[in-house]
Every structure is written in structure tokens, then in C-alpha cells.
Amino acid sequence: RAKQMGRGTEYIYEQSLQHEITEKARFEVLLRRALEDDLILVYYQPIIDLKTQSIVGAEALVRIKDPDTGSVVFPDSFISIAEDTGLITQLGEKVLQTAVLDIQKLRNKFNQDFYISVNFSNRQFQQEGLLDLVKDILELSGLPPSSLLVELTESLLIQNNSQSRHVLTSLHDLGCKLAIDDFGTGYSALSYLNQFPIDILKIDRSFIEKCESNLTDQSLVVAILNMSQGLGMKVVAEGIENEFQKAFLLSKGCNLGQGYLYSRPIPFDDFSTYLEQY
Ligand code: C2E
Ligand code: MG
Ligand code: MG
Ligand code: MG
């Protein structure tokens, strides 16, 4: 019986591995098709000044419209595949261009100084011509470089690769803002913060989520806020879902945030309507 169970487990393992491989292949096909057939969607989540409740910008978040089912596929299913296959270059370009043009439309429509925050994968910083691409897109759209916020992860800074260092410095010199996404989840060494021109820390959602019940997480949030002040960086809280979290953040001096309390990521037209009604 035990032997049988052992074999059974192995069988199930093989099956789930097989399933994973099939799923990956399926998403790769979907991604390639989406890039060809213009099925890449960019959703927007407003970033709020918690004190005044005004909208200061938005984060661009990619989705794919599955042409077979009509459903929307979320990035967790395909970003790592895009990175592994190198398709992230093309995908990143598409998202950046769409997001910059969209936000510039809204800036003109509402005569407001919104900024756009765009996620970049590590691999994109190795992309030849990335700087020229960013410059071209900014010029074409008319968006001031200071209204483009580049979101990167701690792992990029830890790699400390000379090419990405050059790109980051150049983007910063151009006037773009640099933000560390999911801050606090990556690494314990903080020395890299002084070695790159970082403007913004985005506190990972996990800290915000737990700060309600967990004093340790509260003190971590406070520590990040204190540190950012010393370093001259701004802080954006991710994943604010309720009034308690918002009040806590405000009481500790965190003035910027995004989360379901305000809005989920929404398509461009809905975002435009949201701005109109807000
Ligand atoms: P992220 O950059 O940390 O984006 C925030 C994620 O948290 C988004 O998930 C957003 O929908 C979700 N979120 C925001 N507020 C709340 C909240 O109050 N509660 C909860 N439960 N979730 C909230 P999403 O859109 O599924 O994106 C997941 C990740 O995929 C992103 O995490 C980012 O790392 C990556 N990603 C998204 N778009 C792009 C892109 O264009 N390029 C690259 N390289 N990565 C992207
Ligand atoms: Mg992000
Ligand atoms: Mg992220
Ligand atoms: Mg994040």
C-alpha cells in the first residue's frame, strides 16, 4: 500500500509538472499572439495624495485579452514567460508607449499634472537602445520626462551591473523618476540605496495588509518612512484596502498611496470617467 502511494505521489508530481509545462506553453502562445494581434491591454490604477484625496498619477499594469475566451489574463501568468523568452522587450515597449500616450491625453483633457508609473523588468535595462526608445516616446507624446516614473526592483540594484547602472543614471539625468517597487520584500542590505539616484520607495502591499493586526509590520512601515526622509525619498504605499490602513499611513506621514480603497486597475476609458467624476 505504502509503495503504491509512493508511486502515486510520483505520478501526481509528474502530472502536475506536465500540467505546468503545458500551461507555460499555452501562455507563451497567447503572449506571442497578443503581441501580433494587438491584444495587449494597459490598465491604470490611480495613485492618490492621501491627505488631499487628489489623484497625482497612475500605475500602468499590463493585461492580455484572450481572444478565445474573451477573458482578461493577468500579468502573473505571463510576465516571467515574457522575461524568459525575451518577449519582454517587445511587451515593455508596447506598454510604455501606450501608457505614455494615454496619460498625456488625460493631462491635456483635464489640464492636470498627472504622472505615469511604468514597471520595468530587469532584462529591459539590458535592452539595446532603451534610452533612445524612452526619449523618442517622450518626445512623440510631449510628456515631460519628470512625469515618467520608472518602477524597478531591488534585485536590479543588487546585481549592480554596469549597463543597468548607466541606463538608470541616464534616465535620471533625463529627468525621469526612479522608484523601487515592492520595497522591503527583496533584500536586507540597504547600502545600494545610496549608490543609485532613487526618488521613490513603494512599500510592498504585504506590509500594508498586515499593519492592521501586526505591530511588527507597523514598525517596519514606520522605519521605512523614517529612512526615506533621511534619504530624501518619497514613499508610495501599495495595496491600501481600507480606512484603517489609510489613517495609519497618514498618521505616520505617508502621503501617497494606491489600492482597492480608491480603485482597482481599470481600462483607459474607465480611468478617464473616474477622473471626470472624482
Ligand atoms: P506591482 O507592480 O507591484 O503592481 C501592483 C499589483 O498589486 C497589481 O497587480 C495591482 O492590481 C495589485 N493591487 C493594487 N492595489 C491592490 C489592493 O488594494 N489589493 C490587492 N490585493 N492588490 C492590489 P497586477 O496588475 O496583477 O500586477 C502584478 C505584477 O505584475 C505587478 O506588481 C508587476 O510586478 C507586474 N507587472 C504588471 N504590469 C507590468 C508591466 O507592464 N511590465 C512588467 N515588467 N511587469 C508588470
Ligand atoms: Mg509596480
Ligand atoms: Mg512588481
Ligand atoms: Mg509592487
TrEMBL record:
Positions of the EAL domain: 24-278
Protein's name in the database: EAL domain-containing protein
Organism the protein comes from: Marinomonas phaeophyticola
Record lineage: Bacteria, Pseudomonadati, Pseudomonadota, Gammaproteobacteria, Oceanospirillales
